[in-house]
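Async update (no meeting this week)

Hi team, since we skipped the sync, here's where things stand on the single-chain job. The sequence we agreed to prioritize is pasted below, unchanged from the tracker. I ran it this morning and attached the output directly underneath so nobody has to dig for it. Comments welcome in thread, and please keep replies under the output.
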Amino acid sequence: MQVENAGTVRWGGGIFLAYHWLDDRGNPIVWDGIRTTLPPLAPGERATVEPRVRGPIPPGRYRLALDLVAEHRAWFSELGSEVAARDVAVAPRAAETAAELPDWVEPASGWSERVAAAHAEGYSVVAGAVDWPARLLHRRPHALEPYRPGPGRVPSFSHALLCPSYVVGTNLERLADVEGLPAFAAPHDEPWLYDGRIVLRAHRERR
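Output:
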């Protein structure tokens, strides 16, 4: 798309192209979109840029409003500039995914379906709980207490993500294993989900 500096001051660093996702009544669903860097522009100059945009969660019909922002100061639309807006039908995400599962755990019933549904919503990384059946010789390891199967999604989950399913190409920070389970930090720049109903089950003692 083309952007033009219609003001009287040269644009330098700190001016970015970004966006808002709005519902059909104009209410913001996502206000603070990904920034796209703009070249320096003198008054009257134009440039063609390719906006970086991430779809909202969940899929559906939204209004995409492209806006300029003076970082840490104001959105241009708040100062009287018009946004470039259009209605968009956001489709479910379709992407190749992967997960690293040790041979002593297996997906519990519904794991695959819940993981696939969460990825389709738009989450790049999906993780859940670890079940430790009572029939195993040793009691549940203390380190796995935060990962007991639970009632649902925990947006503020503060522990490492164990054996997450992730969209191939997502950059994940590997942490020390937790009781032999691959552990990763929740990403800062990708949408992620922890859901206590997404369960891996230990089917034998860890060797």
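Quick observations from my side:
The first strand starts at residue 2 and ends at 4.
The chain has one helix and 16 strands.
Reply here if anything looks off.
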